[in-house]
Design brief:
single chain, alpha/beta, Aldehyde Dehydrogenase, Chain A, domain 1, Aldehyde Dehydrogenase, Chain A, domain 2, 2 domains, seven-stranded mixed β-sheet, six-stranded mixed β-sheet, binds nicotinamide-adenine-dinucleotide
């Protein structure tokens, strides 16, 4: 079998068989005679709950009950440490049962946004001067609180965004990891760099930018909001979090946690508000120094353009970090292990109803295995349980709201006109459900193969060969995630340089990035900025300053009363 794979490849790489057969824990180049060493873990990630353990399932069920009893409460903006009343209130509902109100949200007005900006400005100097160690300690305390409230946070995600329990829990782990990882990173960067010459000291140090506005999406309501917010805070920026309207209750829980952990009033503020009005007002405000945004391409591009405009009173250029959409593809070549490929594509396409920015929405399959793959993919997809995300057996829950449901259904109608509908799983009538849908014989330039569909719709495209598959995969505006299932070394090697995505996954699913292990973020029209959960991320929130001092003193002149 191994020889066959080498034949497909048409070449034999020295030592690749040894690499394939090496024990997983083996580290190092020299197989023969080298000592076995444990894999070095640079950052210890938080562990997800093991729902196979009965007590954990009992705790999860209890948390769902406790949180259910708290649905419908009011959440107001928190400005300068105080909860403030608002003129406008909207309801955030359970997408699986829209009659169930998860929370009533007071939406901030523009005047209240201005008050938040004024409070942030007033708090900035003290926060910027707070030692990085102290700021990092607050993040670590927040991580502890999240760990202690893990089951509860999972339950809020089940109710507010319809995320199945098993997929909500890794999101809490990710939020915890962001707190701990960025705390460590800030301490690393705080040391700065020193390059001394005889008679001259040189210091390279980092300073906060000022006021950061964080604009977060609903699909990772805890992890993404946490990641962007704590990155801005730990680097010494005063931060206003404007969450997505339909996940603002979970963001309110994050706000509770950050305040309890010790974020001072004015330093962190929670500002639920309408994106198109108050969100845009924050972006345009001359006192804002940077915007960390995650969301759609349309809104991200607009923020990027608006932030570039100089406004009267502004003494700086704004920095924008924008993480946007994707049209992610997995290539399946003729040497792929189809058992692995089918499982990976199904999970990547339909996990959280395809509402992950990293979700697979195109499977590009080489002609010689196309029919076999499609047959197995359809059967595997058929086995997915669609329904209430609170049930442990549910694999696919609802989509976020009626508008999303209608948009996805519109794309499904378009798909019926331009491709073959291979499978449409029926979905519950009540709630915003869309059943997993598979289209086959999709042309690479079809609308459903080019536009981001934020839902459980997969386009399967036939490619003549690997070369053709790679060309099709890259023929998109986006460049977020991508995958390859293959056992051909040259294909595995080529995608690493030629597949234009920010995160490439080989012989595994393409979702579920883990902080530090898989720094995450895309290029092309998928985003601008350095990878979240990676070593460059915090640099975007900082301004470097270099100081050279001549220390060949010619004497000094003390001033009375000054050290
Ligand atoms: P969205 O763009 O509709 O909203 C995102 C945020 O922007 C919300 O808080 C919203 O209120 C705010 N907003 C809307 N208009 C605004 C404006 N004019 N000015 C300022 N703020 C404004 O996105 P969404 O529906 O919440 O999220 C889904 C999208 O996010 C998908 O396209 C998905 O691919 C993308 N996403 C990308 C990543 C990534 O890391 N690349 C991660 C998650 C989600």
């Amino acid at each position: 079998m191994i020889a066959d794979v080498a034949d497909i490849d048409g070449r034999r790489d020295e030592g690749w068989i040894e690499q394939l057969l090496a024990a997983p824990e083996f580290v190092g180049e020299d197989i023969e005679g080298a000592e076995r060493q444990p894999v070095a873990v640079p950052f210890p990630n938080a562990a997800d709950i093991d729902f196979a353990i009965t007590t954990q399932r009992t705790l999860a069920a209890e948390a769902l009950k406790t949180v259910h009893a708290q649905l419908g409460q009011r959440y107001n903006p928190i400005i300068n440490g105080a909860s403030v009343e608002t003129g406008e209130v909207v309801e955030s509902v359970n997408p699986a049962k829209p009659s169930e109100i998860v929370g009533k949200l007071g939406l901030a007005s523009q005047e209240q946004a201005d008050q938040a900006i004024a409070a942030a400005k007033a708090a900035f100097l003290v926060w910027a001067a707070t030692p990085a160690k102290e700021r990092a300690a607050i993040l670590r305390r927040a991580a502890e609180i999240m760990e202690a409230r893990r089951h509860e946070l999972n339950a809020w995600m089940v109710y507010e965004v319809g995320k199945p329990l098993g997929q909500a829990d890794p999101e809490v782990s990710e939020a915890i990891d962001f707190c701990r990882y960025y705390a460590d990173e800030m301490e690393r960067l705080d040391a700065g760099y020193a390059y001394d010459y005889p008679g001259e000291t040189n210091r390279y140090r980092y300073f906060p930018r000022g006021l950061a506005v964080v604009i977060s999406p609903w699909n990772f309501p805890l992890a993404i909001a946490t990641g962007m917010t704590v990155a801005a805070l730990v680097t010494g920026n005063c931060t206003i979090l404007k969450p997505a309207e339909n996940s603002a209750v979970i963001a309110a829980k994050l706000a509770e946690i950050l305040l309890e952990a010790g974020m001072p009033a004015g330093v962190f503020q929670y500002l639920p508000a309408r994106g198109s009005t108050v969100g845009a007002h924050l972006v345009n405000h001359p006192d804002v120094h940077m915007i960390a945004f995650t969301g759609s391409r349309e809104v991200g591009c607009r923020i990027y353009a608006d932030a570039a405009q100089w406004r009267p009173g502004q003494r700086h250029l704004k920095r924008v970090v924008a993480e946007m959409g994707g049209k992610n593809a997995i290539i399946i070549d003729e040497s792929a292990d189809l058992d692995q490929a089918v499982q990976g594509v199904v999970y990547s396409a339909f996990g959280f109803s395809g509402q992950k920015c990293s979700a697979c929405s195109r499977a590009i399959v080489v002609a010689s295995v196309y029919d076999t793959f499609v047959h197995r993919l359809v059967e595997a997809t058929r086995s997915l349980n669609v329904g209430d995300p609170a049930q442990p057996s549910t694999k696919v829950g609802p989509v976020i709201d009626a508008q999303a449901q209608a948009t996805i259904q519109g794309y499904i109608e378009k798909g019926k006109a331009e491709a073959t509908l291979a499978l449409a799983i029926p979905a519950p009538e009540t709630g915003y459900f869309v059943g997993p849908t598979v289209f086959t014989d999709v042309k690479p330039d079809a609308v459903i193969a080019q536009e981001e569909i934020f839902g459980p719709v997969l386009a399967v495209i036939k490619a003549q060969d690997f070369e053709d598959a790679l060309r099709i995969a890259n023929d998109t505006d986006y460049g977020l995630t991508g995958g390859l299932y293959s056992r051909t070394p040259s294909h595995i090697e080529r995608v690493q340089t030629e597949f234009a995505v920010g995160n490439l996954y080989i012989n595994r699913g393409i979702t579920g990035a883990v902080v530090s292990r898989h720094p995450f973020g895309g290029g092309k029209m998928s985003g601008v900025g350095s990878k979240a959960g990676g070593p460059d991320y915090l640099l975007q929130f900082l301004e470097p300053r270099h100081v050279s001092e001549n220390v060949q003193r010619q004497g000094f002149a003390p001033i009375e009363g000054v050290d």
